[in-house]
């Protein structure tokens, strides 16, 4: 009887050891797959968008290729000014549907126009320009303005410096919101 119990314990401990090895292997394989996962910025590039549509500091994202559903996550909300007159706010989760050259049903990004905040609901690429829609109105900007990721709090002019190409492009240029 004692040898039966010992054999049973040996079988149980061997089974548990084997189960532990298999589960550890699965975890390590999952970590390896996750480390090969492209960044949220790389996903944008794969759909012909510049990385500067998202601010620095994206902590993670979800992407469902068949539907195009995309969510990017920040540590908290984020705001900054662009073009000297546009104030943007990002919530801690930005959602939308990605397709080649278009982000539809965008949620989590607002822009201050005059005295009120409005949601940016769609971004489309049209050649070398990006068109931002707030529903019945929108504005276009050169794609070059989004080559660099803005930083929460200060945008792209965080060190008080702005590159000469950006300065030349912005001088005398202040696109107005236009209706589609």
Any overview of this molecule?
The protein is α+β, with helices and mostly antiparallel strands and 180 residues long. It folds into 2 domains: 1-36; 40-179, Roll (at5g01610, DUF538 DOMAIN). The protein is 27% helix and 35% strand. It is built from 3 helices and 10 strands; from the N terminus they run H-H-E-E-E-E-E-E-E-E-E-H-E. It has helices spanning 2-35, 40-46, 164-170; strands at 60-64, 69-73, 78-82, 86-99, 102-113, 116-119, 122-126, 129-133, 137-142, 178-179. Strands 1, 2, 3, 4, 5, 6, 7, 8, 9 and 10 form a 10-stranded antiparallel beta sheet that branches. A hairpin with a 2-residue loop joins strand 4 and strand 5 (102-113).
Descriptive keywords:
3 helices, 27% helix, ten-stranded antiparallel β-sheet, at5g01610, DUF538 DOMAIN, 2 domains, 180 residues, signal
């Amino acid at each position: 009887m004692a040898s039966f119990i010992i054999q049973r314990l040996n079988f149980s401990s061997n089974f548990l050891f084997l189960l532990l090895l298999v589960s550890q292997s699965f975890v390590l394989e999952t970590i390896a797959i996750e480390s090969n996962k492209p960044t949220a910025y790389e996903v944008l590039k794969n759909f012909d968008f510049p990385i500067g549509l998202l601010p620095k500091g994206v902590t993670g994202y979800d992407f469902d290729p068949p539907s195009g559903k995309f969510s990017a996550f920040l540590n908290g909300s984020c705001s900054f000014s662009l073009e000297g007159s546009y104030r943007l706010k990002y919530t801690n989760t930005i959602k939308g549907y990605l397709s080649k050259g278009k982000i539809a049903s965008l949620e989590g990004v607002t822009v201050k126009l005059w005295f009120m905040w409005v949601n940016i609901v769609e971004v489309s690429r049209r050649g070398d320009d990006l068109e931002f829609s707030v529903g019945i109105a929108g504005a276009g900007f050169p794609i070059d303005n989004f080559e660099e990721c803005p930083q929460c709090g200060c945008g792209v002019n965080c060190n008080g410096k702005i590159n000469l190409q950006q300065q030349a492009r912005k001088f005398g240029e202040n696109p107005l919101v236009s209706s589609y």
